[in-house]
Design a protein that fits this description.
Helix content is about 5%, strand content about 40%. It is mainly β.
Amino acid sequence: MSIKNRQFKSPVLALAALVVVAAPLFFYIHMTSAAALSQVFVRFDRMKIGTATTGTVCAKPATASTEAHVQVVFPTGYTLGLAATFTVDTTTNTASWPTGGTAWLGIGTATNVTTQTVTFPSTDLVVGTLYCFNWINSAAVQVSGSATSSNLGSVTTQDSGPATIDTAQYTTASITDDQIVVTATVPSAFSFALSSNTDALGTLTAGTIKPSPTPRTATVNTNAKNGWMVWAKDSSTGLISSSASHTIPSITPGTNSTLSTSAEGYNTGVTTSQVGGTGSITVATPFVGGILGKGGGLDATLRPLATSTGTADTAVVTLTNNVNAIASTPAASDYTDTITVVAAGLF
């Protein structure tokens, strides 16, 4: 029997029947009065299961009203901290916000956490503007301990009532691991080159110090992180002439000196440069050059010329050979010496 055909003698029963009939319509109107947010976005900065994380919330209001709160419902299984842990900012990581995202007006530290619902303060928002904020304390949220997809949550704006203004759902996922470990190998590298294998000093004039017309260079390129070294030795401990049975001697091998115009002498001066690299180059004290006739004598022992503390990009060791003859130096056209130059990286 329908209610409209039923007669109630009691006014109380009649009123109760009216409430029963009207109630579904009332709740339908109340539930459908809230509009959906035009856009909603919740990003978790970590998605790995069981991981504490910061994140970002964005929403675009659809209804003209005066906002006072925003509620974010986090998915079931996500562990939430106290309200005080939900501290926020609107100035960092803004480049990672969705296009058009702007700072959420009046957002502040959460005022309440109930079950999975976190309530933040807000001020009035403009319809059609995408507002964003970050929660910046990883103690606020811990991702679910299980790897699942379509983890459901929602974002809701409220007035001071509090009554819902706009709301929308979002979903996210929790995964076993959210990181990719990238590996690579850089092989050891070392190259070494001499600019030439000859150094013609030309005709000597007694009492005139003659340097290499074109000093020869040794170039090092290496990724040896601990540095590199260059050594040299010679075959004759001086310039020797077989035809004259005479040697213009190396000046005190192992020490630095400057040739005198009044004495026979032969030495090698070293200077350095480099385009790049992590190392600082030091010329060995006996071979510091850069001045006419200044350098160190070579002999049959490999002696360090230069040392670097790190990698090298076009590190250049320049060798200038200096010689001085005197009036009594026997004439000959076969004065010669062979200098061996080697290098190694300290890997």
